[in-house]
Structures are given as C-alpha cells and as structure tokens.
C-alpha cells in the first residue's frame, strides 16, 4: 500500500468549485498535481500553482493518452454537472490504465453508471457531507469519519473508557475482540502512524480505526463508556 504521506501524482479533471477545492487541498499536502479543463481562463488561473496545467478535452482519448493518464497514481474526475463528460472521462481513464479513479456523481443514477463502468471510487460531496454532519452530531466524540465504501468506515475517535487506559494494543487485541484494525494512535497531538502491539493506549488518546460500519459503531460506543 502506498504511503499517503509521500508525494504522489494526481490528475484533476474539471476545475469547478469542487475541483478547485480539491486541487488546493492537494497543493497544501505538497502533492504533484496535473489539472485539466477545457476552459482556458480557469486553467490559466491555477497554472502558476500546480505542477502541470493543461487545456484539453477530457473526453478525447488521444488527448488523455498524450497526457499519459495511466501513469498517475490517482485520477479525480470532478465535473459532476457534466454527466456525460464525467462518464466518458472515467471510462477512458480506466481504459488507458489509470489505477485509481475517483469520480464525482451528480445523483444516484449517475453513481450507478459510474460504478458499472469501473470507477474505483464514487463520491457525492453534498450527500457525504450531510452524512458526516449527522454522524458527528450523533457521535460528538468522533474526531474524523470517512466512508471508504458502502460497508466500511474509517474513524478517529477519542478513548474515554477507563478499561482501555494504560493497556497495550496487543493486550486489547482490537482485531480479535472488536473486528476492527487500529492504524494510528494520536497522543498529545503526535500521530503514531505505525502502531505496534506493544504501544500503550493512554487516557483520552485518539485512535484511528477501520472496519465494517457495524463494528466501527459498536467499538465507538464501547470506547465512550465511563465505567
């Protein structure tokens, strides 16, 4: 699995509000970014910021091949309002060999088509934001929450249950006992991104875990119990 803290290559197709916000976030993370849009003005606006900025038709297979899209670690197709364009661009990117394509859907039917043609990830920003907002309202102790798929979530949650305090990950054995995997521990603001079985959970540490939605919800409730 690639280390997300290292620089990777990203291609962003579509520089609307969401595409621009995504591009800015990638730049802040010091990533290698190619942006592509058919609008010369918006491309010129960001050309001085990104690694490469290209005015092109993302639905033209030859233009995508000229950009060597298959060599990029991640491709984002963000022109959600242009349903036909996003479908064609996604299909071509996968045909050319892009290993990881994330596409923005405009509605449920759009999502179904994108999933059918091979998009690796499909996002609906408004729907995703609404779900995250409600989740945070219902689980205020959860620091971060992401749906990785329909059935799998990743959350960062504070540990408030004293029965977990001062115990090692090996002793707690989250995988066996709770069917989740711990992929990070944050203590006093410092993230341990490669936790070992000997690492200790301290009071109010934040742990990042991944598992099925059901398992994540269950362990979240347990971690908040004040025994």
Automatic annotation (TrEMBL):
InterPro entries: NAD(P)-bd_dom_sf, RCK_C, RCK_C_sf, RCK_N, Trk_Ktr_HKT_K-transport
Lineage per the UniProt record: Bacteria, Bacillati, Bacillota, Bacilli, Lactobacillales
One Pfam family hit: TrkA_N
SUPFAM superfamilies attached to this UniProt entry: NAD(P)-binding Rossmann-fold domains (SSF51735), TrkA C-terminal domain-like (SSF116726)
RCK N-terminal domain segment(s): 7-123
Segments forming domain RCK C-terminal: 140-225
Name this protein carries in UniProt: Potassium transporter Trk
GO-annotated molecular function: monoatomic cation transmembrane transporter activity
One BP annotation, GO: potassium ion transport
């Amino acid at each position: 699995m690639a280390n997300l803290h290292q620089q990777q290559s990203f291609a962003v197709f579509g520089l609307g509000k969401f595409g621009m916000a995504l591009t800015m976030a990638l730049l802040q993370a010091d990533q290698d970014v190619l942006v592509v849009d058919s609008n010369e003005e918006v491309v010129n606006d960001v050309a001085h910021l990104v690694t490469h900025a290209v005015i092109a038709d993302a639905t033209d297979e030859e233009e995508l091949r000229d950009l060597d899209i298959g060599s990029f670690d991640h491709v984002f197709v963000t022109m959600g309002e242009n349903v036909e364009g996003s479908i064609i661009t996604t299909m071509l990117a996968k045909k050319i060999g892009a290993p990881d394509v994330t596409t923005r859907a405009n509605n449920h039917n759009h999502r179904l088509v994108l999933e059918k043609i091979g998009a690796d990830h499909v996002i609906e920003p408004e729907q995703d934001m609404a779900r995250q907002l409600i989740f945070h309202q219902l689980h205020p102790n959860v620091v971060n929450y992401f749906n990785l798929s329909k059935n799998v979530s990743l959350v960062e949650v504070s540990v408030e249950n004293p029965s977990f305090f001062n115990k090692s990950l090996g002793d707690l054995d989250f995988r066996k006992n709770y069917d989740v995997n711990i992929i990070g521990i944050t203590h006093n603001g410092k993230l341990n991104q490669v936790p070992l079985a000997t690492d200790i959970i301290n009071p109010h540490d934040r742990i990042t875990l991944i598992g099925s939605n059901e398992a994540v919800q269950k362990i979240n409730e347990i971690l908040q119990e004040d025994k």
